[in-house]
Design goal:
13 helices; two-stranded antiparallel sheet; disordered C terminus; about 425 residues; alpha+beta
């Protein structure tokens, strides 16, 4: 057959490429299916092999575990049999007794701990603290109990308790000491949480408070060691002639830094000013200033020679001429004078204890200063444009000081070193 374009058309020739293409596609599909089948078969065989290996490993592990348990059981049985055979021996009986005692003590301790744990009162539904008869518990802060001794120590440090005053749980709550202590603790914990302890100013204050507490503790220990009943009796025996002979003087004084201040105070006293008020306002002796300058009763041997001569050369009710010591200028008024004839030990015991306390404080401070090689750098005195202050000391009194022989009533060297009233401190603090 001839086509319109002049070419010959053969149907059989045109059908051959289509059949070839169909056969090629069928062959490719068969090859893909065959490859897919091989992959599936290989995967199945691999899974079967892995499953078989896992099963064998599981069985092996089980057998080994059972063997280990059996071996452990045999060892435990042998150890138990050996322990049973060992118990009747002497060592075994001792071990049994010690173990029993330990178990009993542990049981009692556990029972005590359980009894001491806070329990809820079914009637009042409030938390009750453990009972501590020696030191009652008054509060709890974040699981920590606060005892009466802590409240008392804080109150004494803050000056809320007088020396020798006892604190009870009832009085602690009535005086709001417990609430104050808890508030202080809470504020301190808040400050620590905020990191205020790293502030340089706060650190200096904390160190200063720490030094005060440590200094007070050290001095208390020294006083307890040195001021004993035996020491008081020995001093009374050595100074028996002083307690039987001579006089005691009761006086008060004002200590200032310069002679001009002393002259000004004497002028004010002559004009009718109150001695106690001036002492509280202007005296630099902080031990006697709150008391209006009151020194108390003392003998000649209890003071330095300068102070003693000024006191014992002045009549009661008069003011001695101003005199100077290493602590400043003193304006001394003698209030009373009495004889010490036949003074019993019980009457002078408090004065002797005070003297021993002052001597212990002075000696301890002097020894520490010498040991630490303390050096003071005091400012240079300013040049005065005015005339020099007049000599306030009585010339006759100065001459009597120079001509007066050593005091025969003074104690022997090394026994009772003289102290001044500026050294008087609250020894009970």
């Amino acid at each position: 057959m001839e086509t319109p374009d002049g070419q010959q058309f053969n149907e059989e020739t045109q059908a051959r490429p289509v059949a070839a293409a169909a056969r090629a596609m069928a062959s490719s599909a068969m090859m893909f299916l065959r490859a897919l089948g091989k992959i599936a078969l290989t995967t199945w065989r691999l899974a079967a092999a892995l499953d078989s290996a896992l099963w064998r490993a599981t069985k092996l592990f089980g057998r080994r575990a059972l063997a280990g348990l059996a071996y452990t059981a045999r060892l435990a049985g042998a150890a138990f049999r050996g322990f049973v055979l060992w118990l009747p021996t002497r060592t075994g009986r001792a071990y049994s007794a010690m173990s029993g005692a330990f178990l009993v003590i542990a049981g009692l301790w556990i029972i005590d701990v359980l009894r001491a744990t806070p329990s809820l009162d079914t009637d009042a539904s409030v938390l009750r603290p453990p009972v501590d008869e020696d030191d009652p518990i008054l509060a709890r802060i974040e699981g920590r109990y606060v005892h009466l001794s802590e409240i008392e120590a804080a109150a004494r440090a803050g000056g809320f308790l007088h020396p020798g005053e006892a604190l009870t749980p009832r009085s602690a709550f009535e005086r709001n000491l417990v609430a104050s202590y808890v508030e202080q603790r809470l504020l301190a914990r808040a400050a620590l949480s905020d990191g205020l302890q790293r502030n340089p100013g706060v650190t200096r204050k904390v160190n200063a408070a720490r030094d005060r507490v440590l200094a007070s503790a050290y001095m208390d220990a020294q006083l307890q060691e040195k001021v004993t009943p035996d020491a008081v009796e020995r001093l009374y025996s050595r100074q028996s002639d002083v307690t039987r002979l001579g006089d005691e003087v009761r006086a008060r004084h004002i200590v200032v830094e310069t002679g001009e201040e002393a002259a000004e105070i004497i002028t004010l006293l002559e004009g009718g000013a109150d001695f106690s008020a001036l002492a509280r306002e202007r005296s630099i002796d902080r031990a006697t200033a709150p008391l209006g300058g009151e020194v108390g009763w003392f003998t000649r041997a209890m003071m330095t020679p300068v102070f003693a001569r000024a006191a014992f050369n002045t009549q009661p009710g008069e003011v001695a001429p101003a005199f100077q010591t290493e602590f400043g200028w003193h304006i001394l008024e003698v209030l009373d004078r009495r004889s010490t004839d036949s003074v019993p030990f019980a009457q002078v015991k408090p004065a002797i204890e005070d003297f021993l306390r002052m001597r212990t404080i002075e000696t301890s401070l002097r020894e520490l200063e010498e040991k630490s090689q303390v050096v003071y750098f005091r400012p240079e005195p300013e040049m005065l444009t005015t005339s020099e202050p007049p000599d306030l000391r009585d010339p006759t009194f100065v001459e009597s000081e120079e001509a007066e022989p050593e005091d025969t009533d003074s104690p022997e060297d090394g026994e009772t070193p003289a102290v001044t009233t500026a050294d008087r401190q609250d020894a009970t603090r």
